[in-house]
Amino acid sequence: xxxxxxxxxxxxxxxxxxxxxxxxxxxxxxxxxxxxxxxxxxxxxxxxxxxxxxxxxxxxxxxxxxxxxxxxxxxxxxxxxxxxxxxxxxxxxxxxxxxxxxxxxxxxxxxxxxxxxxxxxxxxxxxxxxxxxxxxxxxxxxxxxxxxxxxxxxxxxxxxxxxxxxxxxxxxxxxxxxxxxxxxxxxxxxxxxxxxxxxxxxxxxxxxxxxxxxxxxxxxxxxxxxxxxxxxxxxxxxxxxxxxxxxxxxxxxxxxxxxxxxxxxxxxxxxxxxxxxxxxxxxx
Length: 284
Hints:
The chain is globular, with a radius of gyration of 18 Å. The chain is α+β, with helices and mostly antiparallel strands. It has 2 domains: 3-118 and 267-276, Diaminopimelate Epimerase, Chain A, domain 1 (Roll); 128-259, Diaminopimelate Epimerase, Chain A, domain 1 (Roll). The chain is 18% helix and 38% strand. The chain has an 18-stranded mixed sheet that branches. The active site is at residue 48. This is PhzF family phenazine biosynthesis protein. It comes from Algisphaera agarilytica. Keywords: Isomerase. Belongs to the PhzF family.
C-alpha cells in the first residue's frame, strides 16, 4: 500500500525558502529496515527525511531522521516539518500538541502558538569552550582577522566557531572535502547581530556545514540552535532571541532558553503532497 509522503519547507512562511524536509508516515507498529529508510532519504535528497510511526499507548509519535547518507539522532527542521504535515494533512488535531519520541527515547513537544507558528521544546546542548579541532579553521578558509580570541566551543554534536560580525559569516566558503574529515556531525559559524530576510534585527547569525553527514550546507538547522541558544543567551544576557540562518535559502527562528530546555519557534509551508510506492520490507 502506498505511504503518505510530504515535503515541507520549515522555518519560513514562503515556499522555496527555509529548509525542506521529507516526511513519511508509516503503517504498522514497527520500524521498517534501516536500509530502506536510508534509501528513501537518498532518493528524496533533502538534508533530512523524517519517518513517523503512529502513536500506540502513550500518545507519542515515534520519529527517526535520515540524511541522504546517515541516520542522525535529532533534527529540528524535520521535527517542525513533521508536526506541520500531521496537522496540515489531518493526521492530528490542530488544537492539540504533538509529542514525538526520538529513537534515543527523547521526548519532543510541538504546539501551535496563537499566531499560527509552531513552538518546539528541545533539550539544551550547553556549550563548552575548547580549542578548535586540528584542521578546522583551515578547512573553513577563514580570514584570521574575523576570528575572536575565544572563538571555538563544542556541544554534543557540533563544533561552533564565532566570528566578529554577520557579514563575515555570510562570506565563508569552506573546503568541504577537508571539512568532512573533522570528527563532528557539523560545524557552526556564527556571529552576533545581523538582519533577517524580512528586515528585522537578529540577535545572532549562523551557518551550518555538515559534509561528514552528507550535507555541505544545511539551509536551516533547528537542532543546532540547542547549542547556539545557550551560547548566545549567556553572552548577550538574554534568554529570548531572534536567530537568522544565513544560507542561500535562509530561515528565521525564535529561540527561548529555559534551564536545560530550548524552545524553538518557526513557521512551515507544505509544498508537496504525494505517495511513496516502493514499499518497505516487513517491519521488525
